[in-house]
Amino acid sequence: MDAFLGLRPGDAVERVAATLGCSPASPQVARYLDQHDNLGHLRENFLVPKVSDLPPSDLAVADGGADCIYLSGNSLGLQPRKARSYLEEELDNWARKGVHSHTEGARPWAWAENTIEGLMADVVGAKTEEVALMNGLTVNLHLLMLSFYRPTSTRHKILLEDKAFPSDHYAVESQIRLRGLDPQLSMLLLAPRPGEDTLRTEDILEVIQKEGDSIAVVMFSGVQYYTGQLFDMHAITEAGHKQGCFVGFDCAHAAGNVELKLHDWGVDFACWCSYKYLNSGAGGIAGAFVHEKHKDTIKPTLLGWWGHDLKTRFQMTNMLDLQPGVSGFRLSNQPILLVCSLQASLEVFKTTSMQALRRKSLLLTGYLEHLIQHFYTEDPSQPGRPHVLIITPSDPQQRGCQLSLSFSVPIRRVYEELQRRGVVCDMREPSVLRVAPVPLYNSFRDVHRFVEVLGEALATSS
Ligand SMILES: *Cc1c(COP(=O)(O)O)cnc(C)c1O
């Protein structure tokens, strides 16, 4: 595999096909890439649903005993194999030792989340003390904004994407209202140029430069959930800082997907959920990051006992000994069962690195792109063939593993046909499919099968 990793993904696929003497679209290419994938064994750490277990599958057109083609890790990551035994351990501790489990055993509940924050920090490029696992993503976004959004009469705006994830949009809007300000005036929404699907970095930087004086917080996603665009977080952070803004990122679609260097980039704050690329299960415990440079200056607005220093937390003196940095933002004791499933996943990440995963990811997603372009044209002047436009940027440095495919035909029928055949991906009507080959557990064969099945689905539904 290493021989191909330096090449552009499309060139690597062509090179493999030439070596094998077959078409780049041949399943032989996928087989070869899987055989040479030094991360292929990681799939063993996850439970891949069988086609027969998926409600929409139709055993007349799909092999029920096969693994499904799971391409929805951007929405809900697969279950780590160890999650169940870790959960059972704590159910057992609860049953047999009750309250003693708060402080006893291999995973004492009272500080269990602290024991996996180092693993979490590695995945997002942070120091352990810059990361807290707590709450859900939107809750963390609110808690962080309560401290980082400090509007003044001249600097009161929050810059975000025009089509940000709804929860982020609502969170920002309500934070603005909470300060008695008008979202019409204080919410600065940045849309792509007319006729374009994604934002240009130069346009983002220009807005920050031009309007920076009035911007209190630049709040972007790391990877855009709909288009799959990976933003240049480093450049955005620098541009924001030059104008005196705080810069925060929602890394829901970036954590566990792309290499993050939250610390080195100097990002002020960040938050992310753990059930997408981090495989902790629906509603899993979320992450928050506050850069260490703010350790003594940025304080939590809302307080709870979990922000108190662990050493004296349970003395109950009501004299707050606030932990510095993000640790002080903790409010409640953390859900041990959610810690278990996240631990199971982070331990798999620990056996590799985001750098290695990213290397595979570039090839895996590049392979998907290559196959789509092989079979489907983006050129609407060619009649008779369905057109598929990849709205995700073609520059691999501007995307994670997800490709968002926009079809010239209504997508619902196609999507239903895909589901009948054991494909799990995401549909956004009227015409977009979001497909995420995850380097942690997806194979090149998954990608090849998907494209094959997509052909059948398009043929059947047209
Ligand atoms: C998935 C996602 C959310 C979901 O928020 P929860 O609080 O975890 O329900 C919010 N924002 C973004 C950008 C997301 O991708």
Automatic annotation (TrEMBL):
GO terms for biological process: 'de novo' NAD+ biosynthetic process from L-tryptophan; anthranilate metabolic process; L-kynurenine catabolic process; L-tryptophan catabolic process to kynurenine; quinolinate biosynthetic process. SUPFAM superfamilies: PLP-dependent transferases. Pyridoxal 5'-phosphate binds at L137, T138, F165, P166, S167, D168, S221, D250, H253, Y275, W305, N333. Coiled coil: none annotated. GO terms for cellular component: cytoplasm. The modification N6-(pyridoxal phosphate)lysine is found at K276. It is found in: Cytoplasm. It catalyses: L-kynurenine + H2O = anthranilate + L-alanine + H(+); 3-hydroxy-L-kynurenine + H2O = 3-hydroxyanthranilate + L-alanine + H(+). Its main location: cytoplasm. Keywords: Acetylation, Cytoplasm, Hydrolase, Pyridine nucleotide biosynthesis, Pyridoxal phosphate. One of its GO terms (molecular function) is kynureninase activity. Pfam families: KYNU_C. Its cofactor is pyridoxal 5'-phosphate. Its EC number is 3.7.1.3. The keyword Transcription does not apply. Pathway: Cofactor biosynthesis; NAD(+) biosynthesis; quinolinate from L-kynurenine: step 2/3; Amino-acid degradation; L-kynurenine degradation; L-alanine and anthranilate from L-kynurenine: step 1/1. Catalyzes the cleavage of L-kynurenine (L-Kyn) and L-3-hydroxykynurenine (L-3OHKyn) into anthranilic acid (AA) and 3-hydroxyanthranilic acid (3-OHAA), respectively. Has a preference for the L-3-hydroxy form. Also has cysteine-conjugate-beta-lyase activity. Homodimer. NCBIfam families: kynureninase. Belongs to the kynureninase family. PANTHER family: KYNURENINASE (PTHR14084:SF0). This is Kynureninase. The lineage of its organism: Eukaryota, Metazoa, Chordata, Craniata, Vertebrata. The gene is KYNU.
